[in-house]
Amino acid sequence: MQTVFIYDGSFEGLLTAIFEVYELKSDTVHIVTNAHYTASFFEEKHEVATNTQKAKRLWKGILKNAKPTDANLIYRCFLSELPDMEQSILKYVQLIFLHKQSVAKDFGEAYVFRLAEINKKIGREKHRMEAFVRFRKTKDGIYFSSIAPDFNVLPLIESHFKKRYADQIWCIYDISRNYGLYYDLKKVEMVHLELPPSILSSSTSIFEEEELNYQKLWKNYFESTNITARANQKLHEQHVPRRYWKYLSEKNLLEW
Amino acid sequence: MNFDRIKEKLNILADAAKYDVSCSSSGSKRTNKNKGLGDSSGMGICHSYTPDGRCVSLLKILLTNHCIYDCAYCVTRKSNDIKRAAFKVQEVVDLTINFYRRNYIEGLFLSSGIFKSPDHTMERLIQVAKKLRLEENFNGYIHLKSIPGASDELMYEAGLYADRLSINIEIPTKEGLKLLAPDKNRKDFLQPMKKVRNEIDKYKSEKKLIKSTPIYAPAGQSTQMIVGATQETDAEVMYTATYLYKKYNMKRVYYSGYIPISYDSRLPAIGTEVPMIRENRLYQTDWLLRFYGFSIEELLNKEFPNLDSDIDPKLSWALRNLHLFPLDINKADKDMLARVPGLGMKSVYKILHGRKYRKLGWEHLQKMGVALNRAKYFITCDSRYFETKDYTPLQIKQRILSEGSSKYQKTLSSQLNLFS
C-alpha cells in the first residue's frame, strides 16, 4: 500500500518528509502539501511535523554526498510549486544517496532531466521578474512594484534588486502569494501588507504626481522605438506573454 | 521638468535612433559603488519587447537629429524634410535616472546626428556620460556612439565613462560607401575604432600591474552593417565582419536589414520588404564563426558567395561535406559534435556530460532537446535503428524541408525551387 506523506508546504517540511521516508523505510511513497491532500481509501496517511533537526541532517547529507549545485537545484525546484515537484525531488535525493555523488549532469536519467527542466522554467521566471518589475514611486518615496509570478521566485531575485537599487527604498510585492520584499536602505525584509485594490491603477492618492508622467513618457518611448515595417506580433508575445501585460505600464496604461 | 516638451523630443529622437539594432546590455563588469545607483555586472536584461519583437534594454535616443552629413541610407540626413529636435545634457541625465529607478531600462544608449563638427558632437555625448557617472553615481550601462572623425583624445575620455563604444560602418563595401555617403571616408570610421582597441589592450596589460588603473570600455566595442542597401554579396558582408572581429577585437557585429526610408534611386524603393531571412542567416553564420569553430572560408567562398535562404548555414555546410558523417554521438569529440546540424552548443554540452554516465540513444537525445529531424541524417547512437539509406545531399535537404515548417514559409515558397 502506498503511504502519503503530508507536509506543511515549507522547504524544511519537505526535507523533513524526505528524511522520514528513509526513517520509516517506506517504499512506495507520495509526498503532498496539506493544502493539496485529498483522503483516499487505498493510501496510508503519515503526517509530517516539520523538524529543523531532521531537515538539517538531510541537507548536510546532500551536501556531503553531492555538490552545492545539487542542493541549489533542489531548492530552486522546490520554489516551482509544481504538482510533481515533491516526487521529483524525492527521486533525485534517492539517486544522490544511491550513487554517493553529484547526479546533476546525468541528463540521461529521467528525474534528473525533469529537475533540470523545472530549473530552466524557474530561471526563466526569475529573469522575467528582473525584467518586468516596474517600480512606481509612492507619495512617501517608496518605489513600489506589484507582481504575480508563475513560481515563487521572490527569494531568488532579492540580491539582484538589493545590489542594483542600493540607494532607494523599494518594495516588490507578490500579490498572488501575499508577501513581499521591502528594502529600507540597509537590509531586505519579508513583509505582509493589506493592499487596497486601487494599488494596481496608479491613483494619485497613493502615488506621486510625477509618477504617471513618467509612465506616459515610458509608454511613449516604447511606441516610438518600434519599427512597423518589421512588425512581428508572434515574436512579441513569445517574449512578453499576455499574462504579464497587466503589470507593464507600456502595455497597460489606458488613460493615454 | 516640462513633460509635454520632453515627450515631443523623446518621440522624435527615439524614432530616429531606432534603426540602430544594438541593444545589448551585457558584458560589463561595473558593480555598484558606495551604495550608489545601479549595477551592470550581471547578464543583460531585456525589460520589454516592441511589437516588432525587438528587445528594449536601453533608453536608445539621439542627442540631436540635426546633421551636417547627407548619407542616403540615413533618416536624419541633411536633405530629409523631417522635424528636428535636440536634448539638453541635463534632460538626458534626468530621463535616464528616472527610467532606471523604475526598472524600465538597463541604461542609456546615446547616439547623435553630427552638428557643427565631429569633435563638438563627441564632446557633448561624453558630457552626458560623465555627469551620470560622477554626479549621479550611476553604475548602470552606458553605450556611447563613437562619432566618425572624432579625435583620439575624446575617444580616450569616452571610454572612461562608457561601458561600450560603437561606430557603425553601415555599408559593407568601399564602393557602396562612396555611392551612398560621398562625404564620408572609411578612414573616419576606422580611426576611432583603432584608438578604442588600442586603449582596451593598454588597459588590459596595465591592469595586470597596477590594480587601480581606471576601467576603460569594459563591454568592448561593436559595429553595425546595413545589408540589402547596396548590391553586396553575403560573402562580402561576412568577410568584412571577420576582418572587424579579428583586427579590432569587436565584441559584436550587428547586421541590419535595410528598411526603405527614401525615394533616392540609388536605394531599394519604399515598400520593398525588409530582408529579414537574409539578416537571420547572416547572424547564424556569425554565431558559427564565433562559437562553433567554423572558419569563414568553409561557409562562404568564391563558389558559394551567398548563403542558402531555405536552410541554415550549418546544414548547408554539412550537405557539402557529407563525407565527414555520420558521427557516433558517443565517441565524437566536441569540435565535431558542434558541427552536426540540429545540435546547438547546449546540446553538445549535455551530450558530453550525459555520455559519461551511459551510452546515449535516440530517446536520450530527444529529451535533451536535439533537433533530430535534422541531426538524424548525420549521426549514429546507441540504437539498432538509424538512417541506413545513402541519401544524396539534395534528398536530405528535401526530406528535412518537407518535414519541418519554417517560420519564414510564407516568404520562402519552396514550391518554386523544386523545378529550378
From TrEMBL, chain A:
Pfam families in the record: DUF4130 (PF13566)
Sequence ranges assigned to domain DUF4130 in this UniProt record: 84-250
InterPro entries membership: DNA_repair_put (IPR023875), DUF4130 (IPR025404)
Highest taxon in the source lineage: Bacteria
NCBIfam families: SAM_7_link_chp
The name this protein goes by in its record: TIGR03915 family putative DNA repair protein
Organism: Mesonia ostreae
Lineage summary: Bacteria, Pseudomonadati, Bacteroidota, Flavobacteriia, Flavobacteriales
TrEMBL record, chain B:
Requisite cofactors: [4Fe-4S] cluster
InterPro entries the record matches: Aldolase_TIM, DNA_rSAM_put, Endo/Exo/Phosphatase_dom_1, rSAM, rSAM_sf, RuvA_2-like
Entry-linked Pfam families: Radical_SAM
Xref: Gene3D superfamilies: Aldolase class I
Keywords: Iron, Iron-sulfur, Metal-binding, S-adenosyl-L-methionine
Signal peptide from the UniProt entry: none
Superkingdom, taxonomy of origin: Bacteria
Domain (Radical SAM core) ranges: 62-201
NCBIfam families per the UniProt record, alphabetical: rSAM_link_UDG
Protein name (database record): DNA modification/repair radical SAM protein
Organism lineage string: Bacteria, Pseudomonadati, Bacteroidota, Flavobacteriia, Flavobacteriales
